[in-house]
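As a next step, we paired sequence with C-alpha cells, yielding the entry below.
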Amino acid sequence: MEETPLDASVLRRSVKDLRLEGHPIRVNLPLLERLYDLNAEVATKFPAGWDNGMGQMGLLLSRRVYNGGYWCTPTNSLSFGGTGGDGAHFSLLITGDSIDEETPVIVTVPDNFGEPADANVVLGRGFKDFLRLGLHCGYFSMAQFSFNANEALEHYSRTDWDGGESWFPSDNHRVVAEHVAKTLNFTRLVYSPAEFEELQVEFKPLMRFKDEG
C-alpha cells in the first residue's frame, strides 16, 4: 500500500509539545507548514516512482521534527528533512526558545570528516531564504557546500535545465521546481561568495556540539 504523502497535519502533530535539550520550543513558522502541504500537492500533481513530493527536488521531509543526532549535528538544532544521501540533513538552528521566520537553516553533512563545524553549512538566515536557494537547482546538491563552497555557489547560480553538468535529482525536477516557485511566489536566491561567507561568520559561532562542555 502506497504511503500517504506528508502534509501539514503530520507536521503539527510532530511539533506539539516540541522540546530540545529538555527545553520547550515554540513553533511559529507558517511557511514550514505550507511546505508540508506543498509536498502533498506535488506528490499528487507530479507522481514519481520514488522520492515523491518535494523529494523530487532532493528535499525529503521528515515525519517528525527532531535533532539529527549525528556526531557533527549541532545539539541546538532540529531537523525537518534530508537529502536522502549519506545522512545529510537540513535543520533549524535554535538560538532561543522558539522557531520562527528568522530561525537560520543549516545542512549537516556527516561524511565530511573534518571538525564538526566543517560538516555544517548555513544555507539561509531564515526558512524563506533556504527555500529560495533551492528553487532552481534543488536541495540534494546542497551537501556539496560543505566540501567546496565556491564550486557549489557556481552550481547554484546556473540557469540552464539540461540536467547534465548542472545535475538535478529527478526527471520531474524542472516542472516541480517551476510549480513550487509559482505556488510560493518566490524568486530564486543566488549568493555571492561574500554574502555566503557573511552567513557562515554570523551564524556558525552559534552552533553547539556534543564534545563541548
Summary: Residues 8-206 form one domain. The longest helix spans residues 30-45.
